[in-house]
Design brief:
Number of strands of chain A: 11
CATH topology of the domain at 5-43 in chain B: Histone, subunit A
Distance between the termini of chain A: 16 Å
Number of strands of chain B: 2
Oligomer: heterodimer
Largest sheet of chain B: 2 strands, antiparallel
Largest interface: A-B, 69 and 48 residues
CATH topology of chain A: Amidase signature (AS) enzymes
Largest sheet of chain A: 8 strands, mixed
Distance between the termini of chain B: 42 Å
CATH superfamily of chain A: Amidase signature (AS) domain
CATH architecture of chain A: Alpha-Beta Complex
Number of helices of chain B: 3
Structural class of chain A: alpha/beta
Shape of chain A: globular
Structural class of chain B: mainly alpha
Strand content of chain A: 5-15%
Radius of gyration of chain B: 22 Å
CATH class of the domain at 5-43 in chain B: Mainly Alpha
Radius of gyration of chain A: 21 Å
Strand order of the largest sheet of chain A: 4-6-5-10-11-9-7-8
Order of helices and strands of chain B: HHHEE
């Protein structure tokens, strides 16, 4: 099979090619590894590769197929965000703290994707401990956007987005605490899905804010995401918030027609904060849905304006607690010199963590400290309830909510890094979804200023992933934004 | 409400993070910028609202009180900065 054909075949195309013996997993894996070797020096999307290990996994997948095994994903290579623990592979979380950490076990999501037969191409760069919206906080340097290497890929799953957009990998895992799958998917022209909280196990996924973190797939199309989520999701007793639900085939409803679909448009998401080029692409996407028989209705999310400040109390509070485990004793960086135990903790952590991570730990420590807990943390949790209740009310009038994923297209490096609050506002449309625990998705819907991709955000009611994927897939049957490839990757 | 450099030192100590004297003022200014941004939450009337700690209401599962994990001490200690005889080594804390 021709290389371009393989690179743009989608998971279904690759699955068919493997089943019909038109390509082997080893050939496919080698093709990706060659592209990584060629393009990663420009993109910095991968922080770790190990071609021998990748090819061994590919040979194993080919052997499984030769032995009569089949499975939709068997032999298709993919890559993992470096927040997922991977047995025998370096797992850094984008931090100096874990720069030499080789995980002794696999995350549950990794175990499931391995069982499905997906060879691993390597580990993907990310904002340090997933704290960032531009990939500029990584200890390993920023990832570059394949559509314009002078611009950010978004974050925190920026390595995942850049790698898939440049066709270094057919698909990747990401995680989303405040928009970290959807925003980079939007900025790099991909489809990305954050499932309902609890659908994918958090076991082995290095914790940032435990009540918000969710793993999800990132790939060119909604159909790809449906296939991946079917493999990733599932109950795991090792995550106390993993949900015991019957297994789902998330691709089951992809082809359903959209006639009668009610799309809710939150007036708060269509205000003056959105750039004109983003608005034009989103409006054009809504017209396409109307052509397919959907109707649109205005809804209100009156408390959504409070989601960013509420998040910047709750997420740092949880992070300050989660990141206390990095103390230079059991794993991770330990300072070379120290006076005593306290000094060892303080120096190891000061050296191991970057500036943004330290800021969030300090904010989290402060809002949880004596005298401030009620005023900040408890108040933020009450506002979280109000934000979630807004969505419940909105879903009485609609089946899916739509709006922009990000207020602007990808911005140049350094544009927002001086002012933390400006950076935080990049996630203004995505954060409320995490606070509510709802599923959210971004799909490509056009191009804006500088020829940069624009993302359309879909928000569904709890456990409506199959419905959202159906809506996204039908849109992608009528449009080809998700098939566009950056010139650098051609 | 705005933090002083003494507040920053106190919080950093609680967080077990060394902040050098040279960094303290810059850190204070950045934290104050974030705190003034989250200050808007104070104006919201939340009387009677139950705090939402988690996205989905789940009860903690109980499992039988039985050993389920294999002994993987050697593998886990292989990634530790300093160990001896199966123990993690830290600076002496008791004279």
């Amino acid at each position: 099979m021709a290389q371009e054909e393989l690179l743009n075949a989608g998971l279904r195309g690759l699955s068919d090619a493997l089943a019909e013996k038109r390509v082997s997993s080893v050939e496919l894996t080698r093709l990706c590894l060659d592209r990584i070797a060629r393009l990663n020096p420009t993109l910095n999307a991968f922080v770790t590769t190990d071609p021998e290990k990748s090819l061994a996994m590919a040979r194993d997948a080919d052997a499984r197929r030769a032995a009569g095994e089949s499975g939709p994903l068997l032999g298709i290579p993919m890559a993992h965000k470096d927040i997922f623990c991977t047995d025998g592979w370096r797992t850094t979380c984008g931090s100096r703290m874990l720069a030499n950490f080789v995980s002794p076990y696999d995350a549950h999501v990794v175990t499931r994707l391995k069982a499905a037969g997906m060879p691993m191409l390597g580990k993907l760069n990310m904002d340090e401990f997933a704290m960032g919206s531009s990939n500029e906080t990584s200890h390993f340097g920023p990832v570059r956007n394949p559509w314009d290497p002078g611009r950010v890929p978004g974050g925190s799953s920026g390595g995942s987005a850049a790698a898939v957009a440049a066709r270094l990998a057919p698909a990747a895992t990401g995680t989303d605490t405040g928009g970290s799958i959807r925003q980079p998917a939007a900025l790099c022209g991909l489809s990305g899905l954050k499932p309902t909280y609890g659908v994918c196990s958090r076991y082995g996924m290095i914790a940032f804010a435990s009540s918000l973190d969710q793993a999800g797939p990132m790939a060119p199309s909604a159909e790809d995401c449906a296939w991946l989520l079917t493999a990733m999701a599932g109950f795991d007793s090792r995550d106390s918030t993993s949900l015991e639900r019957p297994a789902e085939d998330y691709a089951r409803d992809l082809e359903k027609p959209l006639a009668g679909l009610r799309i809710g448009l939150p007036r708060e998401f269509f205000g003056p904060g959105m750039d004109a080029d983003v608005r034009a692409a989103v409006e054009a996407a809504l017209d396409e849905f109307r052509r397919q028989g959907a109707t649109t209705v205005e809804v209100g999310l009156p408390n959504s304006g409070l989601s960013v400040p509420a998040y910047y109390v709750i997420a740092p509070a949880e992070a300050s607690s989660n990141l206390s485990r990095f103390d230079g004793v059991r794993y991770g960086h330990r300072a070379a010199e120290y006076a005593d135990l306290m000094d060892m903790y303080c120096k190891s952590r000061a050296e191991g963590f970057g500036a943004e991570v330290k800021r969030r730990i300090l904010i989290g420590t402060y809002v949880l400290s004596h005298g401030y807990y009620d005023a900040y943390y408890l108040q933020a949790q009450k506002i979280r309830r109000l934000i979630a209740a807004d969505f419940t009310e909105a879903f009485r009038a609609c089946d899916v909510i739509m709006g922009p994923t990000s207020p602007s297209v990808a911005f140049p490096f350094g544009a927002k890094s001086a002012d933390p609050v400006q950076m935080y506002l990049s996630d203004i449309y995505t954060i409320a979804v995490n606070l509510a625990g709802l599923p959210g998705m971004s799909i490509p819907c056009g191009f804006g200023a500088g020829g940069m991709p624009v993302g359309l955000q879909l928000v569904g009611d709890y456990f409506s992933e199959a419905k959202m994927l159906n809506v996204a897939h039908r849109y992608q049957q009528a449009t080809d934004w998700h098939r566009r490839v950056p010139a650098l990757a051609a | 409400m705005s933090l002083t450099t003494d507040d920053v030192r106190r919080i950093a100590r609680l967080a077990r993070l060394e902040v050098s004297d040279a960094e303290t003022e810059h850190t204070r200014d950045q934290l104050n910028g974030i705190l003034s941004f989250i200050e808007q939450l104070q104006a919201v009337d939340t009387s009677g609202v139950t705090p939402m700690a988690h996205a989905v209401d789940v009860v903690q599962r109980l499992r039988p009180d039985a050993v389920t994990e294999a002994d993987r001490r050697a593998a886990f200690q292989a990634v530790a900065p300093e160990t001896e005889a199966g123990l993690y080594l830290v600076p002496q804390v008791i004279e």
